[in-house]
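In this section we turn from sequence analysis to structure. A common task in structural bioinformatics is to predict how a protein folds when a small molecule is present, because the ligand can shape the pocket around it. The inputs are simple: the amino acid sequence and a SMILES string for the ligand, here glutathione. Study the lines below before reading on.
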Amino acid sequence: MTMPQIDIYTTRYCPYCIAAKRLLSHKGVAFTEIDVSRDQVERSRMVMRANGRMTVPQIFVGATHVGGYDDLYALDRAGKLDPLLTTDGAGALATADQEPSA
Ligand SMILES: N[C@@H](CCC(=O)N[C@@H](CS)C(=O)NCC(=O)O)C(=O)O
């Protein structure tokens, strides 16, 4: 089974980041953590990839921008996270970017 690349941008001392990583770990998927606490270049790249969103975490599954922890959690509650994690992410989720929550 092909697993999508999962990127999660975090900072230190970020409760939402910890919660998001815990949820992903619970799903048994591997992810790449990018700590932007002291990395302005990667932080700028995160904001660009996230269409201007500046809070952490920002989570990307394959080609899909999931958003923050609230978005990840809502996706899971809606039963849409598992399918996303087992596809390449492309096209699996049409609405993830539409309701940013700070
Ligand atoms: N609703 C967001 C909240 C994220 C959030 O508030 N993150 C904090 C750090 S834990 C943050 O980025 N604070 C800085 C800011 O709001 O600019 C989510 O679920 O990810």
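The longest strand covers residues 6-10. As an exercise, try to locate the residues that line the glutathione site and compare them with your own expectations.
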